[in-house]
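Aim 2 progress update. The chain analyzed this quarter is reproduced below.
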Amino acid sequence: MPGTSPATSTTTRICPNCDGFATAAISLGDRDDHGHLTTLPVDCPACHGTGTVPVGQRPTAVAGR
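Predicted structure tokens:
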């Protein structure tokens, strides 16, 4: 037996655009007065930062890819 939990029809799968890494920290290139690197969190536009898509639903194409 593969597991103890029953299979459901609402399982999710990893987003093919971000491979599950839904939020990335983008460096702005500067450091603040304390020497910390300034970053900006950016969510995947296809899954809106969740990292998953429902089974049977295909994410829309991201512009610029």
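The mean pLDDT is 80. The beta strands are 12-14, 23-31, 37-43, 52-54. These observations will guide the mutagenesis experiments scheduled for the next reporting period.
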